[in-house]
Structures are given as structure tokens and as C-alpha cells.
Amino acid sequence: MKTKKILTLACALALLIPGMILGEPNVSNDNLVLLPVPKDPTISFRIWFKVGSQNDPKGKEGLAELVASMLTEAATTKNSYEQILEKLYPLAAGYSNTMQAEMTVISGRTHKDNLREYYPLLIDAILAPAFKQEDLDRLKSQAMNYLENTLRYSSDEELGKAVLYNDVFAGTPYGHITTGTIEAVKSITLDDVKEFYKKHYTRDNLVIGLGGGYEPALVEQLKLDLNKLPGGMVAEVPRPQPKPAGGFHVTIVEKDAPATAFSMGYPMNILRGTKDWYALAVANSWLGEHRNSSSHLYQVIREERGLNYGDYSYIEHYPGGGQRQLPPQNVGRRVQLFEIWIRPVPNETRHFSLRAALREYKMLVENGMTQGDFDLTRNFLKKYVLNYAQTTMERLGYALDDTYYGIKGSHLEMFREMMDKLTVKEVNEAIKRHWQYGSMNIAVITKDAESFRKALVEDALSPMTYATPKSDHVMKEDMEIVKFPVKVKPENIRIISVTDLLVK
After folding, report:
1. pTM
2. Checking CA distances to 477, which of 237, 407, 420, 439 falls within 20 to 30 Å?
3. Into how many domains does the chain fold?
4. Alpha-carbon gap, residue 155 to 500, rounded angstroms
5. Domain that holds residue 300
């Protein structure tokens, strides 16, 4: 009866999707992540290929991102890119890619009434990319413009994050941002794109994610269609082994910047799904919850002193932090990044601001959280996590991440459960095990880099003045901050011009 029902549904769906092929699917059910929501009028697709920037060949950094873009932002064998956009527009639908170190996800969403028109466009993007030279030239031009202009000159915050990332993971498969380098992108050819696609976009290297108000027959159709991809297992890239910084290592990017941006951090092995990760999530939220004005760094640097727009910290790589409110999905990785992000401060306060951030972090590492701060933060997180996945598409993204991290059940449900189970003692023990002070990379975007280098080497005092009166508490604390030791060896400071960044 069950087989008959599926065949009946498949026949019904065949009437909706032209060219549908009926037959025995070969994509394994183990490679399915399904999130049926019968009352949802939309259907969400996330097709995850186990490939990312870690698979970029040496000298071709940025290739994985270009290949993903050639699938979602270029022509297929049946339609030019302009025709695809014209056909998607009346459907109020689309598809795109998320490409990071270890995951490439082709995602799309449509109203189920438009599935007949939408599905062939999505599946052709994956199965039948045209790989036209004109599309590659356009996408390479966009990547080059991002590296040469946008990243260097439009966002010092994102530039600082990129410099930090490349420094922390230098010499590993993670050792470059996903867009790559200028010289590498220039060198990428159409043959490079075709070869990378053929090697990594195989039916043995994918996971199908489907959510919303879909019919069961759509699952079978996806399996049948994606089975048309060539077979072949892809050898796993060795787990990155980034070198510990061994003290403070500072990269100062010389730029005529109106303010100074800081990003600092180090690699971290703890991954979600473990008790210690959720313990660190509590500590991190208290220290610097993204976009949250109640977090400690925000209160000390922005609220009490008015030095910038915000100050945040992270226990997972958080790409595009300037454009998002909540954590991204499908950026899974085997080695994570602990990061503190200090949004741009006035240049004359840069040394003081760095000291203030590091002082607060050091006190947390050494002293842990208080019971009161712990209770307040875990109660906040238990509610706040409910905002992480409000749509079917977002929940599907988290479900794929659960598969990536090997989590049995739901990370988000486990997150909330752990907020009831954890104790402040366990949080502070996790801090001692996984966080450390004094060994990290620091990326600085600023003007007059040499004077800042000199101040760091000499550990010079950084007196602070304000345009408006501050409380006695702030003034007393400032007396400690201005002399807080941040000792950096001369050989551990590198100055580089912004024009020399991201070249090769």
C-alpha cells in the first residue's frame, strides 16, 4: 500500500513538473534531511554539497566560491542568466548559495502553487550549468572588485575580520577568506571551474534538505534528479591544525581611516553539541552577545564611555556579522574561531579601547562568571534562542547543521535544555578548559600605524579624556585601564599597507 501511495503521488507530481522521470531513486535516505510542515504554503530547498573553500587548490583560492556562483548566478544550458531572472520574478522566488570553508548549500524557496515553474529552474542550476565564459568573467570581476575595493575601502570592520581570519588559520586549508586572493582569482579559468564542479558536485557528496508544505513525491523526484550527478566520493581534507599564536601577534593595516577597527581571537576546538559548548555560549553571551546592548563589553566600551557603536564576541565563526542580527546557518566547520569584535573607535582612543576589551576578557577568564550574571544570562538565552529559526527555511538550515555536527536531535532544543541543566560552576570550568588570555591574533585597521606600533611595544600609558563628565565609577576604572599591561614583542607586530592586502 505504501509503495502504491508513493507511486500515485509521484504520478500526480509528474503532472506538475514537466520532464519528471519515474524510476528507482539511488540517492541514499541517509542523505535526506526532511522538515515537513503541511500548513506551510511554501517549499524550502537546501541542497548541501560537502565542499568549500578548504578544497580550493593552492594558487586557485576563491575557486569554490566562484563555482558555487556559477551555479546560482549564471546561465544553465536551457536558459541565460537574464532569462532565469525573468522567469523567477513573477514567481516571487529565487535561489542562491551559501559557501563557507566546509559547506556549500544551494538554497531556494517557492510557493507550492509555483512549483511547476520553479523546480526545473532550480534543478537545472545544479545539474546543467552552462559554464559560459561571459558569466565567469562577470563573476570574477565582481570578486576582484570585492577584494580590491569593497573590502579594502568600504568596510574597515569586515576588513579587520578578514585579516584576523587569514592570520589565525594561516598555513591551513582554512587559511584564506572564501573569496580568495586577487592573483588567484585572476588565474581561474573555465577549465578550473569545470574540473572543480566535476570532482566535488557528485551524488555521493550531497545531502538533500527539504522543508515546508511539499508532497512526498517531491522527495523522490529530488533523489531521482540529483542521482544524475556523477558518482564519486571526495577525499576528506585533513582537519586544520592552526598554530597557537604564542603571545599577542598584531597585524596593523595602514590606512587613512577616520576610526580604528579591531578584531582579535584564536582557534578553538570545542564544537556545538557538547556540554562545554553550551557552557561557553552562556559565558560568551554575557561577554559580548551579538547586537545585544546588555552584554558586558557593550556596556563598558559603548554604554559607559560612548566610544563606538558596539562590541561583541563569538565562539563560532560568524561571517557577515555587520549585515545580520542572528547567527547564520550552514557555516559548519571542524575548527572554530573565538573572536572579539570592537567596532571602530576614535583613533586617539585606540590603545585605551584595546586595553579595555582585553582587560574585561582577562577578568572573565581568570575569575569566571558570578551566580547572578549566570542566572540572568541563561534565562535570557533560553528565550532568545527561540528567535534563531523562525521560518521553515531557517529551521531546515539548522537541521542540516545538526547533521553536519552529528547531533542526534536538535541543537536548538538542546540549547534551551542546557540552560536549565548547567551550573555556574560548570560554565566557569569550561572557561578554564577552553579559553585563554595572552595568546591571540589581533587585527587593527588604523592610520599612523607606526605610532601605534611604538605604543604597543613600549606598553605606553593611554590616558583618556571625555567631552562630557563621566561617573566616579568610570573615572576610577579608567585609572586601571590606562595602565593595563598589553605587552607585545616588536617581532610580533606586522604593519602592512591596505593596498598590499589580499594580493596573494
Report:
1. 0.94
2. 439
3. 2
4. 16
5. 258-448
